[in-house]
Specification:
The complex is a heterodimer of chains A (90) and B (367). In chain A, 34% of the residues are buried. Chain A has a 5-stranded antiparallel β-sheet, with no helix packed on it. Chain A starts with a strand and ends with a helix. Helix content of chain A is 34%, strand content 39%. Chain A has 90 residues and is of the alpha+beta class. Chain B is of the alpha/beta class. Chain B has a single domain, classed as Rossmann fold (3-Layer(aba) Sandwich), CATH 3.40.50.11740. Chain B is built from 16 helices and 11 strands. A 6-stranded mixed β-sheet of chain B has the order 4-3-5-6-11-10, sandwiched between helices. In chain B, strands 2-1-7-8-9 form a 5-stranded parallel β-sheet. Classes of the chains: A alpha+beta (90), B alpha/beta (367). At the A-B interface, strand 4, strand 5 and helix 1 of A face helix 1, helix 7, helix 8, helix 10 and helix 13 of B.
Chain lengths: 90, 367
């Protein structure tokens, strides 16, 4: 139940004094309450749980995470190649 | 960037797993708090790709599993009233009460409806002024925001026929309880990232310090889970016990202040009964006295309730990481998702349901 799904905000409006919006989840749009993400705007990505946006996703932090992990994967590849060439040589 | 596929990249996950294998030298017992993470570990087979030194034990982060039996029996009693439309998240309907579940109430003609958002329950109240609409407001901190917003919305709309049956639980007191138990085996925690999206992780700093136990805030995709594990294993091997953020695209240390203010406005802390575990001091939230008119427990007098728990089910020990589902004699035989003895076999976040669904019927050693 704590699962949150990332989606893209495609519309922001007010309904019954509540800040609401439409969020696109890979082609399926749903109404989501945006009351707790004050500064959200169209095209932002949010994490949605039980019809509520909990936080706005940071692209900068996502890119940084991926770049660190990319380097790790490259390094693992290189280590594999080195150990393979050592085995071949022995 | 769509924040899904990028974090399921098999090559990147392999790289992180390789780094875990290169880092680990000693056996470590690690608990993922959240049942959603338990399911993700098993769904992607990550648990079987880890080095044998790492043992994952599964935490209490399954709201359906820890909602007290007494409250489920109350829900069943309220839902059975002809003047009530009882609304709930879907998982709750098959959770066994003392005698029956909410599905049985529906089969007997009761109006029990599944909603996606608590605001859908408020809409139902507006559309059905001659009925009492009750929402079963269970959950951890993540769900507290949706739950309190339904009350705030009903207040704004001046609805007199909407109320909530509340069972709110909080992670930090549960971590304290697990670490303080004489049976504890947990040496490090993967914290549930979406709880932290709401609450931040500042509350975890004194827990890590006092119990000298590292905690890593972790997301839910395979890359997030493996990265969280790597950060934790590095700390365990180095003997450090910091709180680290392995999910920075979603979580900040202070969390979502706006959400915290809304929760604070409607709820106050209270002692809470956890099914299978017992009372944990100040581990829950209840409605503040100003919102008592929205309290379903006060609105409907359901009389005394005598609860009767299954004598076989070991869900309590599983939820505290003391035992694994396969150690239960009823697992997969007397107890299945079709005929569950305990809530951990029902929920999409229950550890027993995860073991059953993903075929972890045997321990690693037996394979």
């Amino acid at each position: 139940m704590c699962l949150g799904i990332p989606g893209k905000v495609i519309d922001v409006y007010t309904d019954n004094e509540m800040r609401m919006g439409k969020v696109d989840f890979g082609g399926v749009a749903r109404e989501v309450c945006l009351e707790a993400v004050d500064e959200v705007k169209t095209d932002d990505y949010v994490i949605v749980h039980a019809g509520f946006a909990l936080s706005i996703l940071s692209e900068e932090d996502a890119m940084e995470t991926l770049s660190i992990l990319n380097e790790m994967a490259l390094l693992a590849d290189e280590m594999d190649e080195i150990s393979a060439s050592v085995e071949e040589g022995s | 960037m769509r924040y899904v596929d990028e974090f399921r990249d098999a090559k990147l996950v392999q790289g992180v797993l390789e780094e875990i294998r290169n880092t680990v030298t000693k056996p470590w017992t690690i608990m993922e708090i959240c049942g959603g993470q338990t399911h993700a570990f098993l769904q992607y087979g990550l648990d079987e790709m880890l080095p044998p030194e790492i043992e994952l034990v599964h935490g209490p982060g399954c709201p359906v599993c820890v909602t007290s039996l007494k409250l489920i029996d109350k829900a069943i009693a309220i839902a059975s009233r002809p003047d009530v439309i009882f609304t709930s998240f879907g998982d709750m309907l098959r959770v066994p009460g003392s005698e029956k579940d909410l599905f049985a109430v529906r089969a007997a003609g009761g109006q029990v409806k599944i909603v996606y958002s608590p605001l859908d329950a408020v809409k139902l109240a507006k559309q059905n002024p001659d009925k009492q609409v009750v929402f079963f407001a269970i959950g951890f901190e993540t769900t507290a925001l949706p739950n309190v917003m339904s009350v705030i919305q009903a207040e704004t709309m001046k609805l007199k026929n909407f109320s909530v049956l509340v069972s709110q639980v909080r992670v930090p007191p549960a971590m304290e309880a697990i670490l303080s138990s004489p049976a504890n085996r947990v040496q490090g925690f993967l914290a549930a990232g979406h709880v932290n999206a709401v609450m931040g992780y500042w509350e975890y700093l004194p827990i890590a310090e006092e119990h000298q136990t590292p905690i890593v805030v972790t997301g839910f995709e395979p890359l997030d889970l493996s990265r969280g594990l790597l950060m934790l294993v590095k700390q365990l091997e180095a003997g450090t016990y910091k709180v680290e953020n392995g999910y920075p695209r979603t979580v900040t240390e202070e969390g979502n202040k706006s959400a915290q203010r809304a929760i604070e406005r409607v709820f106050e802390s209270c002692d809470q009964q956890w099914r299978g575990i017992g009372m944990i001091p100040m581990s829950g939230w209840k409605l503040r006295p100003e919102y008592a008119s929205f309290d379903a427990e006060q609105r409907f007098d359901v009389g005394d309730i005598n609860t009767q728990e299954s004598e076989i089910c070991i869900a309590g020990e599983i939820l505290q990481g003391v035992k694994k589902p396969v150690e239960c004699p009823a697992f997969g035989t007397l107890c299945t998702p079709q005929n569950p003895l305990g809530a951990t076999m029902v929920s999409g976040e229950g550890a027993c349901a995860a073991y059953y669904r993903y075929g972890r019927g045997r321990t690693r050693q037996e394979k």
